[in-house]
Amino acid sequence: MFDFMNIMNKVKEAQAKIKETQAKLVHLTAEGEAGAGMVKVIVNGNRKVVSIAMDDTLINPSDKEMLSDLTVAAINKAMEAIEVKIKEEMKSATEGMMPNIPGMDLGNMF
């Protein structure tokens, strides 16, 4: 039989740790690049674009569509990379706090 009060205390601890970790995510960053590094994008753990850097050779009005495509590709790569980092941070923050209950994966909550 589960110790209900112990589980509730663990849930409260996990919630506090999750909130603390979420506050730190703004400092977590990931980079994505496209066009062999011609476009680089950095995003933070709050899933916000922090910076976009473009090679000077791309800044040509006739290449506007290519520049747009490369920027989108770099942003998508950076977003994929930050998702991995966020899951790692959250897993690390809650590891060992909750009992191993089948089907209850806190890592997928974020």
Automatic annotation (TrEMBL):
Has UniProt tagged this entry with the keyword Ribosomal protein? Answer: no
Q: Give the record's keywords alphabetically.
A: Coiled coil, Cytoplasm, DNA-binding
InterPro entries assigned: YbaB-like_sf, YbaB/EbfC
One term of GO molecular function: DNA binding
| A cellular component term, taken from the record's GO annotations | bacterial nucleoid
Coiled coil regions, renumbered to chain: 4-31
The cellular location(s) given in this protein's UniProt record come to: Cytoplasm, Nucleoid
Q: Does the keyword Coiled coil apply?
A: yes
- Name the source's superkingdom: Bacteria
| Gene3D superfamilies (UniProt xref) | Nucleoid-associated protein YbaB-like domain
Subunit text: Homodimer.
Concerning HAMAP family, the annotation shows: DNA_YbaB_EbfC
Task: Tell me which family the UniProt entry assigns to this protein.
Answer: Belongs to the YbaB/EbfC family.
Q: What does this protein do?
A: Binds to DNA and alters its conformation. May be involved in regulation of gene expression, nucleoid organization and DNA protection.
UniProt-recorded name of the protein? Nucleoid-associated protein Belba_0052
